[in-house]
Amino acid sequence: MKKFYLSFVTICLIFSATAPLPVTVYAETNSPEEICPNNTEEKPTQEGSTTSSNETNEKKPATADKTNEETTNASNTAADTSSPEKETTPDTKTTSPSPKEKAATNQLLAAGDTYIDTFPDEAFAKVIALQITGNDDTSQIVTQEQLDSITSLNASGKNITDVTGINQLTNLTSIDLSQNQLTSIAPITDLTSLTSLNVSNNLLSIVVITTAQNIPNLTSLNISNNPTITKLSIADQAKLTSFSASLGGRQSALEELTLSNLPALTTAGTSSPNSVYFSNYSDVLTTVKLNGLPKIQRAIFDNNLIDDIDVHDMAGLTTLELHANELTDINKLADLPMLNYLNASSNQLTTAGIANVVQLDALQTLYLDSNLLTSFTLDAENDLPNLTNLSISSMPTITNIHIADQAKLTSFSASLGGRQSALEELT
Fold first, then answer.
1. 53-68 residue pLDDT tens
2. Is 36 helix (H, G, I), strand (E, B) or coil?
3. What angle do CA 325, 330, 335 make, to 5 degrees?
4. Structure-model confidence comparison of residues 250 and 334, the more confident one
5. Per residue in 85-119, pLDDT tens?
6. Fewest CB atoms less than 10 Å from the CB: which of 78, 153, 200, 383?
7. What ranges does the record list as Polar residues composition bias (predicted)?
8. How many Å is the Cα radius of gyration of the chain?
9. Distance between CA 241 and CA 298 in Å, rounded?
10. pLDDT of residue 270
11. Under a CB-based contact definition with an 8 Å cutoff, are residues 160 and 124 in contact?
12. What b/e sequence results for 42-67 when a residue is b if at least 16 CB atoms lie within 10 Å of its CB, and e otherwise?
């Protein structure tokens, strides 16, 4: 019998060594059943020692208790093992970019946006796609990082009608959109690095550039050959030095021009230095407002249809040409300390409409010919102390001329219409 048990134990040990199986170990190992409980049913029956149900029931709790103990230990071990991971989790999160950081990197585009999603004008989208990828397929996905790589954009002559989305090219310094079919440049905003903008030869109607556009570093602007422009307003551009606007001469539709607070501006209209030049410009230009242009020395607006002129706070202005317009009033000419030449002839000026001219103390030459004055007076109380040349010819409506105490006056022209003149008193 002992030999049999020994043989049985040996078989179990060999089997465990060659193919390890989970074996429950009991505290008591007095019988082969306890040593190899999994083989209880295979124990030889000739010995007549089958395991009783009571013994089996007694062993089951022991097995359960042991199993629970091992399970508890395993759970504790797993918990201990996972603890260091929980402790290191904050460090991992610290090194990962937060959602806000990710949003800042790609703040203008949604994930998966394509060129045509970003730039609705197909022709414009192709230009951008081609410059970035070398392929004009507008269905390609684009990222903000790719858009930020563009600093200079040449899209001249590409049949572009709309530049919506251009504000997403945040690092642009130079834009050439000439020779297209643009009707508006309103989308050109928030390009804080932009220094040069060329939108000549388009179909623009209204051009307004102020602080709202947020292009504070703009130095050069070209809007020439846009005969469809009706309103042009440029204000509060601290670095703008050059502004080209040959808009089509007499065919121009320009009605209103405003240039305000442009401290660096030296050229506006044509290439004449230190000048705002809109001579013989438009059959419909009626309103002109200039102020805060300290580097402008000459403002030329002759041969238009201007009926409202407001020129003030122009510290460097020496020459103002307003000949042949529709002016009835020039009293908005003020704060022009260097103005020495004023030609306002061939308008519809009245005596009341020139009342403030005597405040232009630097005037040396004044032309008021061919207007509708009824009287004209210069004396000690209403004088122009530096005036040397005065012309008030071709005014058959004038009845009274009084000129006295003008120390520097050397030339006075007053051909008033001969027999048709209404002149009654001359002093």
1. 444 444 444 444 444 4
2. coil
3. 130
4. 334
5. 434 444 434 343 333 333 333 346 888 999 999 99
6. 78
7. 46-55
8. 47
9. 15
10. 76
11. yes
12. ebeeeeeeeeeeeeeeebeeeeeeee
Q: Give the H/E segment covering residue 399.
A: none
Q: For residue 295, with 0-12 CB atoms within 10 Å meaning exposed, 13-18 middle and 19 or more buried, which class applies?
A: middle
How far is residue 283's CA from residue 281's CA, in Å, rounded to a whole number? 7
Residue 269 and residue 246 in contact, taking contact as beta carbons nearer than 8 Å:
yes
Greater model confidence, 247 or 72? 247
Give the percent of the chain with pLDDT over 70: 72
Return d(Cα 188, Cα 172) in angstroms, integer: 11
pLDDT band at 425 (very low <50, low <70, confident <90, very high): confident
Q: Tokens 């932009």 identify what position?
A: 194
Q: Which amino acid is it at 31?
A: S
Length of the chain: 427
Residue 367, SS3 per DSSP: strand
Closest CA to 184 of 137, 108, 121: 121
Of 378, 334, 388, nearest to 360 by C-alpha is 334
Beta-carbon contacts of residue 425 (< 8 Å; ≥ 6 apart): 399, 400, 401, 402
Give yes or no for a contact between 204 and 223, defined as CB atoms under 8 angstroms apart. yes
Six token digits for residue 201: 């030869």
- Amino acid identity of residue 150, one-letter, is I
Q: Answer for the pair 234, 222: CB distance below 8 angstroms, yes or no.
A: no
Q: Is the pTM of this model over 0.85?
A: no
Distance of CA 214 to the CA centre of its chain: 5
Spell out the domain ranges in the chain: 2-95
Residue 246: predicted pLDDT? 82
- Locate 338 and state its tokens: 């260097």
Structure-token match 């690092």, residue found? 171
* Interval 8-16 mean pLDDT: 50
